[in-house]
């Protein structure tokens, strides 16, 4: 058995802000993907995945008991497949902010949820919010509280615009200009990021009035402006807002930026060669970069591997 592919995702804008109702924009990233497979001959990685699936299945059985109105699963088939050696065969790096657990959640829901909401039906706001709620509960198994957005993106394979917690929609984004000089890219920090500790630091900071004020007046304001500029295709305004956003993150989210990147982050702002921002919760994994001139950014970051995800 080999199930359908589910893709990784990139949250272009909205990390941390969406916890406090900023806008957000998430896009599927087809470079990485994963699928459920049943196979008895296991490598160590596949064996570990199989063990984790068993733990996840136990969690889902408990979730179904506690919230039968939210979601139910064909637990018998799931258990049989796990016993037959099922694992999640994935190229998505874990702890890199590109949604490895999200793709797994989407794959399990797609195969084992009973009475599931399918991608083919008319996905109105109510259905999207219901899916998001289901995925949020499912993904909480992996890293504490989850918004459910990563699995939603992976499941639908569509860009998702988050207007607020209760208002999400599938979005059309401007088509890429392959001949354009500008780009969004991923920069590999070379270390794995843990989501839960980063979110804990953020929640602690939220207890301070000054941090809350900065979040609302600067971070959320700039994030919202970036989302609007990106969707409109207003590249000039977008880069002005991204520069400011990069500055706000450097000044206020230092623990989420791996230490060895503080200098690089500032150099981008000072030279305008590129602007960096968090990809997911930070702490490691990928860093997201934006540049109006990819060649210039590649020269400035010649010691790093850049992966282009979108061309302007």
Keywords:
alpha+beta, five-stranded antiparallel beta sheet, 11 strands
Question: Your description of this structure?
Answer:
The protein is an alpha+beta fold. The protein contains 10 helices and 11 strands. The protein has helices at residues 44-66, 75-83, 100-112, 125-143, 149-156, 195-205, 209-232, 235-252, 262-271, 294-300; strands at 6-13, 24-38, 72-73, 86-90, 113-114, 160-164, 167-170, 183-188, 275-278, 286-291, 306-311. Strands 1, 2, 4, 6 and 7 form a 5-stranded antiparallel β-sheet that branches. Strands 9-10-8-11 form a 4-stranded antiparallel β-sheet. A hairpin with a 2-residue loop joins strand 6 and strand 7 (167-170). Helix 8 packs antiparallel against helix 9. It is globular. 40% of the residues are buried. The mean pLDDT is 93.
Give a nutshell description of this structure.
By secondary structure, the protein is α+β, with helices and mostly antiparallel strands.
Principal-axes geometry comes out as globular
Number of helical stretches of at least 4 residues: 10
Q: Kindly state the mean pLDDT as a whole number?
A: 93
Strand content: 15-25%
Structural class by secondary-structure content:
alpha+beta
Write the SSE topology:
Blueprint: E1 6-13, E2 24-38, H1 44-66, E3 72-73, H2 75-83, E4 86-90, H3 100-112, E5 113-114, H4 125-143, H5 149-156, E6 160-164, E7 167-170, E8 183-188, H6 195-205, H7 209-232, H8 235-252, H9 262-271, E9 275-278, E10 286-291, H10 294-300, E11 306-311
Antiparallel strand pairs: 1-2, 2-4, 2-6, 3-5, 6-7, 8-10, 8-11, 9-10
């Amino acid at each position: 058995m080999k199930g359908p592919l589910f893709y990784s995702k990139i949250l272009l804008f909205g990390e941390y802000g969406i916890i406090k109702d900023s806008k957000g924009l998430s896009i599927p990233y087809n470079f990485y993907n994963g699928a459920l497979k049943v196979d008895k001959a296991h490598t160590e990685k596949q064996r570990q995945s199989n063990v984790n699936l068993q733990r996840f299945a136990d969690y889902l059985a408990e979730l179904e008991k506690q919230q039968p109105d939210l979601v139910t699963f064909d637990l018998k088939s799931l258990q049989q497949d796990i016993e037959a050696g099922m694992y999640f065969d994935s190229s998505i790096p874990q702890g890199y902010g590109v949604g490895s657990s999200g793709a797994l959640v989407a794959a399990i829901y797609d195969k084992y949820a009973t009475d599931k909401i399918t991608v083919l039906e008319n996905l109105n706001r109510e259905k999207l919010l219901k899916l998001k709620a289901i995925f949020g509960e499912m993904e909480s198994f992996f890293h504490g509280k989850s918004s459910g957005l990563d699995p939603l993106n992976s499941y639908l394979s569509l860009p998702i615009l988050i207007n607020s917690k209760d208002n999400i929609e599938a979005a059309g984004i401007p088509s890429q200009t392959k001949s354009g000089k500008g780009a969004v890219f991923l920069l590999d920090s070379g270390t794995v990021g843990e989501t839960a500790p980063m979110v804990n630091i953020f929640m602690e900071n939220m207890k301070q009035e000054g941090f809350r004020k900065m979040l609302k007046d600067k971070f959320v304001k700039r994030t919202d402006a970036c989302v609007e500029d990106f969707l409109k295709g207003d590249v000039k305004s977008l880069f002005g807002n991204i520069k400011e956003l990069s500055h706000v993150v450097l000044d206020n989210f230092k623990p989420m930026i791996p230490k060895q990147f503080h200098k690089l982050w500032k150099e981008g702002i000072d030279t305008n060669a590129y602007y960096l921002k968090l990809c997911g919760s930070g702490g490691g994994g990928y860093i997201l970069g934006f540049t109006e001139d990819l060649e210039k950014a590649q020269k400035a970051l010649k010691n790093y591997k850049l992966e282009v995800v979108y061309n302007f």
